[in-house]
Design brief:
Length: 298
């Protein structure tokens, strides 16, 4: 039996900034290796949660533990790596010098060259940080997050500014770390990223947790199918059709979620025989995220 403490434990955790409650008494326990994605719209509380876990912000009340230690303690810091959304580094040091410096902070780091090779930084490892492109800077920051061989890695929007190829390369490294027994806590606005990477997803909305499960189980929380089509039927009328639970305009298309797709389509075609470009699909994570983050858990 594994008696090791949870990687991340929150008990009735609250965080306020003056009168504004960013986190409203959440509870969760994260155990074992893998990728844990935290999703939410701006202001949902996900970045506040990570800053509290890193000891950069003090919790207002409740309990938060990082690998059994208080957030920000030396014991926790030695086992944690991080990329923050707004992080930056000294301009005049090269990437290799930055990695060498950060490696010195940890008891059992990867070698500098191993880190450069893992993150594919060979072509700019000896460039000064200020000379790097935005995407190269992000990749250098990722190298600093992993050089210490940490047990827990926080990645706050890690692929911002990366092209498609660089993003997919980083995905491969993240999955490799998870397979090596590491725990990665990821926040992202790219729902494709969460769906491709995450073993578990927690969705936050206005400081509370509205879902915490595997991607497949979260998809099951939103019933029915998604109808996508071009139609002259107004949103107000579409919302009155049998089985319809939500309607969203996406450019010239309407996206309709229905628990009774056959009946919905029958009524829609009666109202608009010219309805075109029709597709019907099971909900994607994007559909579920939209529904849950708006408080609709139908």
């Amino acid at each position: 039996m594994d008696n090791s403490p949870p990687i991340l434990l929150a008990q009735d955790l609250k965080k306020s900034y003056g009168p504004v409650a960013a986190i409203k008494g959440i509870n969760f326990s994260l155990q074992g290796a893998g990728v844990f994605a935290i999703l939410g719209q701006n202001g949902a509380g996900k970045t506040s949660l990570i800053k509290c876990a890193l000891g950069l912000e003090k919790v207002s009340s409740g309990n938060l533990q990082v690998i059994g230690h208080p957030p920000g303690s030396l014991q926790a810091k030695r086992q944690v790596g991080v990329i923050l959304q707004d992080s930056d580094l000294p301009d005049l040091l090269t990437v290799r010098e930055q990695i060498t410096l950060f490696a010195s902070y940890y008891p059992k780091p990867f070698s500098v060259q191993q880190t450069i090779d893992m993150c594919e930084l060979q072509t700019f490892a000896d460039k000064r940080y200020k000379k790097l492109s935005g995407g190269q800077k992000r990749r250098a920051q990722f190298a600093l997050a992993i050089v210490g061989n940490p047990q827990l890695i926080f990645l706050d929007e890690p692929t911002t500014g990366l092209d498609i190829e660089a993003r997919r390369n980083m995905w491969a490294i993240i999955r490799q770390f998870a397979e090596q027994g590491k725990t990665i806590v990821l926040t992202t606005h790219y729902l494709e990223e969460a769906e491709n990477l995450a073993d578990r997803i927690m969705i936050m909305n206005s400081g509370v947790i509205v879902a915490n499960a595997s991607p497949n189980d979260i998809k099951k929380q939103t019933t029915g199918s998604v109808i996508r089509c071009e139609t002259q039927i107004s949103v107000d009328v579409l919302q009155t059709i049998s089985g319809v639970s939500s309607v969203v305009n996406a450019g010239r298309f309407s996206e309709i979620r229905s628990a009774d797709v056959n009946q919905s389509l029958k009524e829609m075609l009666n109202l608009d025989p010219q309805l075109s470009d029709l597709t019907v699909a099971q909900p994607k994570l994007e559909d579920v995220f939209s529904a849950l983050s708006q408080g609709d858990q139908a």
